[in-house]
Amino acid sequence: MKKHIIGNWKMNGMQSHLTEIQKIDEIAALFDNIMTGLCVPATLIYSAHKDKKAVIIGAQDCHQSKEGAHTGCLSAAMVKEAGAKMVILGHSERRQDQGENSRLVSQKADAAIDNNITPIICVGESLAQRESGQAEKIVSEQLLASLPSNKPQKMIIAYEPIWAIGTGKIPQMEEVREIHEVIFRLLTQKYGDAANDYPILYGGSMNGENASELLKLAHVDGGLVGGASLTADKFAPILKAASQNS
Ligand SMILES: O=C(CO)COP(=O)(O)O
């Protein structure tokens, strides 16, 4: 499977940053043995996706319903029409800020799949859960409850330990390997051989220095990158590491 490196711009990015996306696209085109994506704020999806050579543009959320009285929300069909090919769902920041639970994430995944958008389903434990030895249990429960109703043709899973996001801290390599193996095992139990087609990404303080070591681990099929995806200068070394480990 191709390594997948997907940037999550979170609530960052104005029209003035489209030039940076252009630069990222130029660099992504140099590494054609990997998949490069950028999930940008909804306001940038349309302009960001136009005339891109290599980078695939995604959204950061979608509503679970097709349409209707949901002020301020965007349906999967809307982000698709704007140019999104994938959508991040159940990021820990949304689970926390917007109180999203795994059942809702599963419904959103259904909506994404109905509209031919690849869901990127995020799971991950808190520091307290990690320290009390519950990481595997929490991630397994979250994962199983967040999956779509039917076997999807395309789906991406992102393991993001909450305490590693934006902190500069990452788990021990063995800890990452263990959780990715658990995720792969659960997907295999549920979907059989199709599990081989679902990339499992690591997210949380991935950068040019640690990417190579992380991407060498079994079942680490790529990364979901926050801060280090905001500029071409910081993102490029991660793309290079992915390309070399593909
Ligand atoms: O939350 C993340 C990606 O979704 C990770 O963010 P950082 O790479 O900034 O830690």
TrEMBL record:
<dbReference type="Pfam" id="PF00121">
    <property type="entry name" value="TIM"/>
</dbReference>
<dbReference type="GO" id="GO:0005829">
    <property type="term" value="C:cytosol"/>
</dbReference>
<dbReference type="InterPro" id="IPR013785">
    <property type="entry name" value="Aldolase_TIM"/>
</dbReference>
<feature type="binding site">
    <location>
        <begin position="226"/>
        <end position="227"/>
    </location>
    <ligand>
        <name>substrate</name>
    </ligand>
</feature>
<dbReference type="GO" id="GO:0006094">
    <property type="term" value="P:gluconeogenesis"/>
</dbReference>
<dbReference type="InterPro" id="IPR020861">
    <property type="entry name" value="Triosephosphate_isomerase_AS"/>
</dbReference>
<keyword id="KW-0963">Cytoplasm</keyword>
<feature type="binding site">
    <location>
        <position position="166"/>
    </location>
    <ligand>
        <name>substrate</name>
    </ligand>
</feature>
<feature type="binding site">
    <location>
        <position position="205"/>
    </location>
    <ligand>
        <name>substrate</name>
    </ligand>
</feature>
<comment type="pathway">
    <text>Carbohydrate metabolism; erythritol degradation.</text>
</comment>
<comment type="function">
    <text>Involved in the gluconeogenesis. Catalyzes stereospecifically the conversion of dihydroxyacetone phosphate (DHAP) to D-glyceraldehyde-3-phosphate (G3P).</text>
</comment>
<feature type="active site" description="Electrophile">
    <location>
        <position position="91"/>
    </location>
</feature>
<dbReference type="GO" id="GO:0019563">
    <property type="term" value="P:glycerol catabolic process"/>
</dbReference>
<dbReference type="GO" id="GO:0006096">
    <property type="term" value="P:glycolytic process"/>
</dbReference>
<dbReference type="InterPro" id="IPR000652">
    <property type="entry name" value="Triosephosphate_isomerase"/>
</dbReference>
<keyword id="KW-0413">Isomerase</keyword>
<keyword id="KW-0312">Gluconeogenesis</keyword>
<feature type="active site" description="Proton acceptor">
    <location>
        <position position="160"/>
    </location>
</feature>
<dbReference type="InterPro" id="IPR022896">
    <property type="entry name" value="TrioseP_Isoase_bac/euk"/>
</dbReference>
<keyword id="KW-0324">Glycolysis</keyword>
<dbReference type="GO" id="GO:0004807">
    <property type="term" value="F:triose-phosphate isomerase activity"/>
</dbReference>
<comment type="similarity">
    <text>Belongs to the triosephosphate isomerase family.</text>
</comment>
<comment type="subunit">
    <text>Homodimer.</text>
</comment>
<dbReference type="GO" id="GO:0046166">
    <property type="term" value="P:glyceraldehyde-3-phosphate biosynthetic process"/>
</dbReference>
<comment type="pathway">
    <text>Carbohydrate degradation; glycolysis; D-glyceraldehyde 3-phosphate from glycerone phosphate: step 1/1.</text>
</comment>
<protein>
    <recommendedName>
        <fullName>Triosephosphate isomerase</fullName>
        <ecNumber>5.3.1.1</ecNumber>
    </recommendedName>
</protein>
<dbReference type="InterPro" id="IPR035990">
    <property type="entry name" value="TIM_sf"/>
</dbReference>
<feature type="binding site">
    <location>
        <begin position="8"/>
        <end position="10"/>
    </location>
    <ligand>
        <name>substrate</name>
    </ligand>
</feature>
